[in-house]
């Protein structure tokens, strides 16, 4: 981190639409604010399990609100999240462990692809409603993000390796250590202290804390 730049870590999982919103907004702010933005792919399932959290949509009234909320946020931030009532069931039935391991593998080998690849997973999952747990869909996402088929194939083989599994587990545990209980979890390192912000609607507060 260069002098005076605030390190901001974004812990995210592509299963989370709010993570996509937070991701896109921070991608825009990183060119305006004096921050060093670091993407930290983690596993939301692991965080929920460790903290005893439940998917918010399991509460019917909250699910009803989230539908409206995500539509409003998508419009406001101009992020193409497409959401309908049956998406909550679809999300509960889809595991993103493979996708998040794939994203972790790119972070370990070719981090310059981390941003476009993560975005492409959200687009396939939240705009095109595809099942990103299938290997052929993962490869299609990788192609869209500009990865060669050789590289994509290599990464797909890496997702079952202990190195990738451990890295994702460690990142997830790190998020929990910072106090995360859901996603997105944004950690700003300011005045030698980590400051945790939960959700995509606390970014103005983040700016205010770091003096932006």
TrEMBL record:
CDD domains linked to this entry: DsbA_GSTK
BP-aspect Gene Ontology terms: glutathione metabolic process
Record Pfam families: DSBA
The keyword Transferase belongs to this UniProt entry's keyword annotation: yes
Signal peptide stretch: none
Name of the featured protein: Glutathione S-transferase kappa 1
A molecular function GO annotation: glutathione transferase activity
Lineage of the organism: Eukaryota, Metazoa, Chordata, Craniata, Vertebrata
GO cellular component annotations of the record: mitochondrion; peroxisome
Entries under InterPro entries matching the protein: DSBA-like_thioredoxin_dom (IPR001853), GST_Kappa/NadH (IPR051924), GSTK (IPR044088), HCCAis_GSTk (IPR014440), Thioredoxin-like_sf (IPR036249)
Catalysed reactions, as listed in the record: RX + glutathione = an S-substituted glutathione + a halide anion + H(+)
Family: Belongs to the GST superfamily. Kappa family.
Active site positions, chain numbering: 16
Start and end residues of each DSBA-like thioredoxin domain: 8-209
Keyword list, A-Z: Transferase
EC number: 2.5.1.18
């Amino acid at each position: 981190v260069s002098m005076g730049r605030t390190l901001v870590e974004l812990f995210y999982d592509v299963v989370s639409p709010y993570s996509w919103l937070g991701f896109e907004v921070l991608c825009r702010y990183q060119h305006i604010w004096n921050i060093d933005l670091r993407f930290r792919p983690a596993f939301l399932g692991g965080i929920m399990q460790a903290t005893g959290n439940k998917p918010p949509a399991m509460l019917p009234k909250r699910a009803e609100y989230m539908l409206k909320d995500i539509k409003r946020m998508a419009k406001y931030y101009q992020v193409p999240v497409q959401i309908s009532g049956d998406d909550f069931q679809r999300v509960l039935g889809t595991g993103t462990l493979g996708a998040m391991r794939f994203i972790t593998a790119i972070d370990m080998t070719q981090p310059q692809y981390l941003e476009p690849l993560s975005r492409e997973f959200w687009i396939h999952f939240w705009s095109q409603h595809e099942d990103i747990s299938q290997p052929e869909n993962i490869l299609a996402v990788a192609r869209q993000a500009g990865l060669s088929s050789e590289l994509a194939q290599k990464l797909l083989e890496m997702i079952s390796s202990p190195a990738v599994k451990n890295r994702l587990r460690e990142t997830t545990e790190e998020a929990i250590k910072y106090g995360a209980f859901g996603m997105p979890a944004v950690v700003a390192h300011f005045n030698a202290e980590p400051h945790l912000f939960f959700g995509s609607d606390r970014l103005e507060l983040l700016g205010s804390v770091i003096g932006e």
